[in-house]
Structures are given as C-alpha cells and as structure tokens.
From TrEMBL:
SUPFAM superfamilies: XCC0632-like. Residues 60-222 form the ABC-type transport auxiliary lipoprotein component domain. It holds the Pfam family ABC_trans_aux. Keywords: Lipoprotein. This is ABC-type transport auxiliary lipoprotein family protein. It comes from Marilutibacter chinensis.
Length: 238
C-alpha cells in the first residue's frame, strides 16, 4: 500500500451526484469554517512573514446533528463511552482518499480539525445526550457509575472511489461492543458502515459528505445502544 500527497483527483466525467437534503447547509458550514481558519493563517503570516502557498493548510471541522428516532426506547441505566481504538494510519488529521482498492493517498493542503476517533466518539455521545432517552451518559473516567460501557474500534475513515466511480464517497466503518460493567459481559456487538457520496471531488464537498456519514453513524450507534441495553435489562430482570 502506498501513501502520497495529491492536490485533487481528476475532475468527474459523469454528471454531478444530486445532493442529499441538508448537504448544502453542511457544505456552507464547513466552507465557512475552513475559510475562517485560512484567514487566521493569513493574519499570522502578516506578523511572522510570508508563507509559501504550498504550505498553507485548510482545517475542516464537522458538526453532525442527529434527530432522535421516536422509536428509540427510554433507558433507565447509565452508560460510559471508552476512547476508540484505531490504527494510527486511520486515526490521522490528514484526510485520506482511496482512488483504488490497494492505494491510499491524502488531500494536499487539507486537514481535519480533530482526530477521526474523537469525531466519532463526540458524535455518538452528543446523539445520546441530545436524545434525552438515557438516564446518564459520559466518557469513561468521568466518574459516573456506569451500568454499561460502549467500546468502539474505528476501522475506516476515508474518501473512496469505489468501482471506478467518477466521484468519491465518504466511508466510515466502526465496530462496536456493548459491555455490561458488573460482569464485563459483552451483551451486543455489531459493525456499522456508512458510505455517503460527495457532490463533487473538491475537498469541501468531500468534507460535507463526511459530515452526513458521521451523523448517520452516530444515529445508528445511539439507537442500537439503547435497544441492546434495554433488551439485556429485560432478560436480566424479567
């Protein structure tokens, strides 16, 4: 497997993919965030001296919002979230792109503002907190007396040109396990995979696709945790 920088992959030869609902707002937020960071960099340059344009870096910050599913149950138990496990090559501030199955590259001049593992953890935590469907949820080590613990492994967080596609898709893959803390029993496990097509090959459009994929991933994991934990509670206390 090789890794190298690139400015952008060749422009698409097929029509643009129709944007999903909310994609325009997501791209606008990401574009504004990236522009603000770029302006901050330029302001610093006026003090420190000129910087070679090729060394300028735009940082992209994702802000996924999750609407709770009305079908989610109410959970009368507490949950802690462990830090994610992830290989260093996956959990990187560099934005990865896979133009071919056996080749990984990175977008030149673009970085994530936070590590992918932090974005995944924050997304799930926020989805559960905002849902109001669980008695308490917090990161491991926060001091709450957790009944269950969510352990996740980040397997993929990359842009991918699948099957020779002209446009990339944002791919997020997470393996999750729900543990019952008193006996450390694994009560449920599942792998979650999201693939969200980008509207164009530009980095800002790829980042917008990642925001949608991250929101879907957070929603699916949060709902699964609530249902799985309640199922175990029912079996343990029929």
């Amino acid at each position: 497997m090789s890794t190298r920088n690139l400015t952008d992959l060749p422009p698409p030869t097929s029509p643009r993919v129709r944007h999903q609902p909310g994609a325009s707002a997501g791209r606008a937020f990401i574009r504004l965030t990236a522009c603000a960071l770029a302006l901050s960099l330029l302001a610093a340059c006026s003090i420190l001296g000129p910087v070679d344009p090729k060394d300028a870096v735009a940082r992209y910050s994702l802000d996924p919002r999750v609407q709770a599913d009305p079908a989610w149950p109410q959970a009368d138990w507490q949950l802690s979230l462990a830090d994610l496990d992830a290989a260093p090559a996956v959990d990187s501030l560099r934005i990865l792109v896979r133009p071919q199955p056996n080749e990984v590259q990175v977008y030149q001049g673009a970085r994530w503002a936070k590590l992918p593992s932090s974005m995944v953890l924050d997304g799930v935590l926020r989805a559960l907190e905002d849902s109001g469907r669980i008695r308490a949820v917090a990161r491991q080590g926060s001091g709450i007396g957790a009944d269950y613990k969510l352990v996740m492994d980040l397997r993929r967080f990359e842009s991918e040109y699948a099957d020779g596609a002209a446009l990339p898709s944002a791919v997020i893959e997470v393996s999750a396990k729900l543990l019952h803390v008193p006996d450390q029993q694994v009560v449920a496990s599942r792998t979650f995979l999201q693939s969200q097509p980008a509207g164009a090959p530009a980095v800002v459009d790829v980042a917008a696709a990642f925001e949608q994929a991250l929101a879907a991933n957070s929603r699916d994991i949060a709902g699964w945790v609530l249902v799985s934990g309640n199922a175990h509670e029912h079996d343990a206390h029929p």
